[in-house]
Amino acid sequence: MRNNNAVHPCDFRIHDIIDKKYRVERVISTSPAHQKFKVIDPAGKKYTLKLFKLWEAEPRLRRDILASADSEIKSCQIKSNYLANIVKTGNINGNPYLLTEYSNSTDLSHYIKNPKLNTIKTAKEILYGLRDLHKSGKVHCRLTPENILVADNNHIMITNYVILGDRGRIFTNQNKTLHTRFVDKSLAYQAPELYRPERYPATLPAIDIFAFGTILFQLLTGELPYGRLATESDWMHYQSRVNNDDWNRNSLLRNEQREMWTSILEICLTADTSKRAANIDEIIEKFPPDDYPYISIPGSQVEAPRSILNGIMLHIMQGEQFGTYYRLPEIIQPPKRIITVGRTDNTIFNMIQLSEHTSAYISRRHCTIELDDETDTWYIRDGQWDKQNKDKWTRSLNGTYLNSEEVSQEGHKIKPGDIITIGNIKLRVEGY
Asked: Which of 246, 264, 284 is the last residue of a domain?
């Protein structure tokens, strides 16, 4: 998705042709970051085309947005009953666009506090979509009611997870400059750690879990959990209440299932990531087990990970080396039981070398993966021994994460299905 550094504004209207192929039937919506159209191709097939307004982004951010789009598009072929089908991507006048199958579905924002929706069914289907996304090494980062579609049968599908996915901080930062006179209500769905990137450089599933909690609260009450959000003054107070976990618990007093809902919201809406649910399964377990079970698609890559027959391997699900496998038993060098991991660098040797040219989140000595011979168990530890510094253990600069938990120096056990996050790279632990 190259733009040759040339980005020009696009002002498409009804009957205009986009990318020499797609005729605009109507404008669905417009926002500071993107514009959405209903389009039709020469064969008469209808699509939804979402055009990202790169011309309104700061020039220094454009390259990162395009790199993000390229990376996500290559690695986001997820088959799920709860994720919208991505048909094609491209760009027009240097601005990336995303093409999805057109549906008469309405987004969830039109159903807030609508008794026609079964809240348990809606919530569980959102969670199923997020779980499929996270198992594939993705984080949405911009989950809002507008990015959740409701079909005629009230079936839920999450959309707009490809370009926004896992690089949503770019758009978050952009929001800070776009919304100086008014507050974008989408800020309410963004986890507080996105505003402290120096402490939380990685994009983790916990970000989507916070957004889910906000959406669930709206479905139950029609309101935002931390109060009114319309002005910059509101935003300051809103952030303060978020940081103090001061969401409106009293609004659930009349709900017959308030104990269940409160227990779910408590592990979703907290600003403390150590108290927030580490994965989607922790939330699903709090729902009635037999109501609205998960429906899988045969052959999907989000099915249960393969059994361990020969050993453990790491599969890059996101990053410049997307699709690369590292079979750990074949990499390790006896009698040593340690595999070193770090960025590609000519000054230091790592057994697993990770490339990331669009950021500098990966340390030269980032982490180690170690085998316990007695239990045949693999562990991951943040940091490495630094022989050039008196054999001192050196932690990585930006941390190593296992699912939504930061990995310590002491180490964490890894198992099939786990997602390791190193910078903007995500590796899934699999058996082979």
From this structure: 284
Distances (CA, A) of 250 to 129, 221, 247, 256: 29, 11, 9, 13
- If asked whether residues 280 and 341 sit together in one domain, one would say no
pLDDT tens per residue across all 432 residues of the chain: 554 457 889 989 999 999 999 999 999 888 777 788 999 999 999 998 988 888 887 777 777 666 656 655 655 567 889 998 778 888 888 888 888 878 778 899 999 877 789 999 999 999 999 999 998 888 888 899 988 999 878 999 998 776 555 544 444 444 444 344 445 678 899 999 887 766 666 788 999 999 999 999 999 999 999 998 888 888 889 999 999 999 999 999 989 999 999 999 999 999 999 899 989 999 999 999 989 999 988 766 565 566 788 899 999 988 888 889 999 999 998 888 999 999 988 888 899 999 987 667 899 999 999 999 889 899 999 999 887 766 789 999 999 999 989 999 999 999 999 999 998 899 999 999
Query: What does residue 378 show for φ and ψ, rounded to 5 degrees?
Result: -100, 140
Residue 427 is assigned to a structural domain of this protein: yes
Q: How far is CA 319 from the centre of its chain?
A: 14
Asked if 146 and 108 touch (Cβ cutoff 8 Å), the reply is yes
Which of 267, 284, 301 represents a domain boundary (last residue)?
A: 284
Domain that holds residue 338: 312-431
Q: What is the CATH number of the domain that holds 215?
A: 1.10.510.10
Q: What is the pTM of this model?
A: 0.82
Helix (H) or strand (E) holding 352, with range, is strand 352-354
Q: What CATH number is attached to the domain comprising 331?
A: 2.60.200.20
